[in-house]
C-alpha cells in the first residue's frame, strides 16, 4: 500500500498540509479571545513557554513517531507495547468528538458567506445569530428541533471532508492544501491590512497586547496557554502521527516541525492584530470601551465581526465575504486532517480500504454532528469542548510524553530522527519530554481541577 494514496508527493506538500491542519478556526477566533481573556500581552509568556517546552517537542515527537512506526496513533503505540494501544484510540475518540462540532462551526462560516453578501444579520447580529439563525435555546430542557438549513450545510461540509480524504494523501489532502493555503494567506492579509489601517485600530491593538502580569500567577492562565498550544498545533489528536507516517523514511523532521510551529503561531499573532484593529475601530465608532465589543467564544467571529463589518466605511460586503471564506478554508484544511486521523486507525485495525474507512468515518461523523444543529447545540458544544480538551487532550499530552519518554525512551527516538534531520536536537528535547511536559501539565491539570470543584 506504499502508493501515493498513503505517501506525500513532496516536502512542500507535507508542510502545507501540516500548516493547513494547524491553522484553523483556532487561530482566527480562539487565539484572540483566549489571549485577551488571559492577561493580554502577558499571555504571550505562558504561550511561548508552552510552545517551546511542550508544543514543538511534541510536534517533533509525533512526526517522528509516525514516521518510524509507519502507522496511525493506535498502530504506532501498539508497536511500543500492546498495552498502550488504547492511548491511540483515546486520541482517536477525542478527535472524532472534536470534528463533530468543528464541522458545525465551519458550516456556520459557510452560511455567513451568504449572509455577508446579503447583510442578513442586519443591525443586530447577536439576535440574528442566536434567535433567528441558530434558534438556540438556553439549555437541554428545551432541546428544540434540528435546524434543517444548518444541517444541510453540515452535510455539505462532510461531503467536502469526505471527497478530499477519500482521494488519499497526495491526490486529496496534499492537493487541497496546495490550493487552500496560498488563498488563505492572501485573504487574511487583506483583512489584516484593512484592520490595522482603520481609525482606532491602534487602541484596539494596544488593548490586545497590554500586559496584565498579575494573570501570570493564575494557574488557569497557564493551562489555557497549554490548551491553546495543543489545539493550535493539532498535537495529541493523532493527526501529526498519521501525517508523519506518510513521510518517506528519510524525510527531515526537526526543521519541518519548527517551520510548522512558526508559521502557525505567526499566523495567529498577525491575525490577532488585525482582529483587534477592527474591534478598536468599532469601539471608536460606538464610543464603547473595547472590553464591551470583544465577545466571548463563537461570538467573536459570528457577532462582533459582523457588527464591525456593518460599520466599515467601504467595501463591507467584500470584506465580510473575504473573512468568512477565509474562516471556511482555514476550517476545512483542519477538519480534513481530523478525518484522516480518525480514518487511518480504522484502516490499520480492520484492514479496510481507504474508501471504506472514510465512508464509515464521515457517515458516523455526520450523524454525530446533528446534535450540534439542534436548539441546544451551543450548550452541548461548550460543555463537550471543555471536557474534551481537559480530560482528553491534556491527559493524552501527559501520557504520550511519559510513554515515549520513559517507556520507549526519548533517547531512542532522538537517535532515529536526528540523523535524518537538517539540524540536530540536543538533550534538552529528552528533558522536555521526560520531565518538564508531564510534571508541568499534571500540576496544572490538578490545580485547575481543584479550582473547578470549588
Ligand atoms: N489546529 C486547528 C485550529 O487551530 O483550528 C484545530 C485542530 C485541527 C485541532 C486538527 C485538532 C486537530 F486534530
Ligand atoms: Na486549517
TrEMBL record:
A Pfam family name for this chain?
SNF
What SUPFAM superfamilies does the entry give? SNF-like (SSF161070)
Q: How does it sit in the membrane?
A: Multi-pass membrane protein
Name any Gene Ontology BP term.
Answer: sodium ion transmembrane transport
In terms of domain of life, where is this protein from? Answer: Bacteria
Q: Which key words are in the record?
A: Membrane, Transmembrane, Transmembrane helix, Transport
Q: Does the record carry Transmembrane as a key word? A: yes
What's in the GO CC field? Answer: plasma membrane
The regions listed as transmembrane in this protein's record are 12-32, 44-65, 86-110, 146-167, 179-202, 222-246, 258-284, 318-339, 360-381, 387-408, 428-446
Q: Where in the cell is it found?
A: Membrane
State where it is primarily located: membrane
Return the PROSITE patterns for the record. Answer: NA_NEUROTRAN_SYMP_3
Q: What is this protein called?
A: Sodium:neurotransmitter symporter
Species this protein is from? Acetohalobium arabaticum (strain ATCC 49924 / DSM 5501 / Z-7288)
Lineage, uppermost ranks: Bacteria, Bacillati, Bacillota, Clostridia, Halanaerobiales
Amino acid at each position: 500500500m506504499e502508493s501515493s494514496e498513503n505517501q506525500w508527493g513532496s516536502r512542500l506538500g507535507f508542510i502545507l498540509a501540516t500548516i493547513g491542519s494547524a491553522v484553523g478556526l483556532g487561530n482566527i477566533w480562539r487565539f484572540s479571545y483566549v489571549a485577551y481573556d488571559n492577561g493580554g500581552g502577558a499571555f504571550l509568556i505562558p504561550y511561548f513557554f508552552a510552545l517551546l517546552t511542550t508544543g514543538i517537542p511534541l510536534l517533533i515527537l509525533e512526526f517522528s513517531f509516525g514516521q518510524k512506526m509507519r502507522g496511525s496513533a493506535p498502530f504506532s503505540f501498539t508497536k511500543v507495547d500492546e498495552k498502550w494501544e488504547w492511548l491511540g484510540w483515546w486520541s482517536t475518540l477525542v478527535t472524532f468528538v472534536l470534528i463533530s462540532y468543528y464541522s458545525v462551526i465551519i458550516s456556520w462560516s459557510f452560511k455567513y458567506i451568504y449572509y455577508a453578501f446579503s447583510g442578513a444579520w442586519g443591525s443586530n447580529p447577536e439576535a440574528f445569530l442566536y434567535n433567528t439563525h441558530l434558534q438556540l435555546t438556553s439549555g437541554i430542557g428545551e432541546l428544540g428541533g434540528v435546524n434543517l438549513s444548518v444541517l444541510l450545510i453540515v452535510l455539505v461540509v462532510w461531503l467536502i471532508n469526505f471527497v478530499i480524504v477519500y482521494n488519499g494523501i497526495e491526490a486529496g489532502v496534499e492537493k487541497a492544501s496546495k490550493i487552500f493555503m496560498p488563498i488563505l494567506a492572501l485573504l487574511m492579509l487583506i483583512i489584516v491590512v484593512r484592520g490595522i489601517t482603520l481609525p482606532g485600530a491602534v487602541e484596539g491593538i494596544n488593548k490586545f497586547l497590554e500586559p496584565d502580569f498579575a494573570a501570570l500567577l493564575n494557574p488557569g492562565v497557564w493551562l489555557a496557554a497549554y490548551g491553546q498550544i495543543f489545539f493550535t498545533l493539532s498535537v495529541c489528536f493523532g493527526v501529526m502521527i498519521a501525517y508523519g507516517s506518510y513521510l518517506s523514511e528519510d524525510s527531515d523532521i526537526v526543521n519541518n516541525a519548527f517551520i510548522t510551529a512558526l508559521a502557525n503561531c505567526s499566523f495567529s499573532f498577525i491575525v490577532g492584530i488585525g482582529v483587534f484593529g477592527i474591534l478598536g475601530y468599532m469601539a471608536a465608532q460606538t464610543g464603547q470601551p473595547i472590553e464591551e465589543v470583544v465577545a466571548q467564544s463563537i461570538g467573536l467571529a459570528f457577532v462582533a465581526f459582523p457588527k464591525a463589518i456593518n460599520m466599515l466605511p467601504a467595501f463591507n460586503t467584500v470584506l465580510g465575504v473575504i473573512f468568512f471564506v477565509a474562516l471556511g478554508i482555514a476550517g476545512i484544511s483542519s477538519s480534513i486532517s481530523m478525518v484522516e486521523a480518525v480514518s487511518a486507525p480504522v484502516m490499520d485495525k480492520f484492514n479496510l480500504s481507504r474508501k471504506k474507512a472514510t465512508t464509515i468515518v464521515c457517515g458516523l461523523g455526520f450523524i454525530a454532528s446533528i446534535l450540534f444543529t439542534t436548539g441546544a447545540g451551543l450548550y452541548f458544544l461548550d460543555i463537550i469542548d471543555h471536557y474534551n480538551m481537559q480530560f482528553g487532550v491534556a491527559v493524552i499530552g501527559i501520557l504520550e510524553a511519559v510513554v515515549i519518554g520513559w517507556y520507549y525512551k526519548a533517547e531512542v527516538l532522538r537517535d532515529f530522527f536526528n540523523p535524518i534531520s537538517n539540524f540536530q536536537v540536543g538533550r534538552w528535547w529528552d528533558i522536555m519530554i521526560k520531565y518538564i511536559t508531564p510534571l508541568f501539565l499534571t500540576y496544572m491539570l490538578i490545580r485547575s481541577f481543584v479550582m473547578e470543584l470549588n
